[in-house]
Amino acid sequence: MTNKEIKVVFLGVSGVGKTNLINRYVKGSYNEYENTTITSTYMSKTIIYGGKDYIFNIWDTSGSEKLRSLTKLFVKDAKIIVLVYDITFKESFLELQFWLDFILENVSQKILLVLVGNKKDLNNNIKIKESVGENFAKVIKASFAQVSAKNNDDNWKYFFDDILKDYIKYTTENEDKKIDDDYEDDDDYLLP
Question: Would the pTM count as exceeding 0.70?
Fold first, then answer.
């Protein structure tokens, strides 16, 4: 049985909780005093779907402005990009436009885009309402969830499991389709 590897990259400004979301999903853990990610790290999670193993290499990138040029290397060949913002920090939501522009400039392949509003546990300090996140996700054609990495919020695990399984299902159903399958007359379309 061959394992298929799929690259997932988390983007967002420093402090939004990317590392804790990944840790919660992969290891089921949370660290209140998690250090800011200085470079980039990754963890792997295997999902069995249709009798095959799919290995998701999940990259945690630094949100630091100084290190954004390095992040270009990490989005290369990504299949899924997760944009994360902190629902209690308005600027992290406004910075999503930077990350969308960054993706447009540095990603040439087709990707699945996911938008996540983190820190739902801080519901007394919300600056970005869930409806705002949902509407923005519709505009950018992304899947959306508002979650808490701190609380053992199973919604995050189930949401992300569903995203990964939907990705597998979509790619499996379309892997045999060639670029010119939609054209009735192949002579009218010349491949480079």
Answer: yes
The CATH number covering residue 28 comes to 3.40.50.300
Amino acid at 36: T
- From first to last of the 192 residues of the chain, give the pLDDT tens digit: 457 899 999 999 988 999 889 988 898 876 665 555 555 678 899 988 888 899 999 998 875 555 555 567 778 889 999 999 999 999 999 999 999 999 999 898 889 999 999 999 898 899 999 999 999 999 999 999 999 888 866 678 888 989 998 898 888 777 654 433 443 333 333 333
Q: Would 181 be classed as within a structural domain?
A: no
Domain membership of residue 30 (yes or no) is: yes
Residue 32 structural domain: 4-175
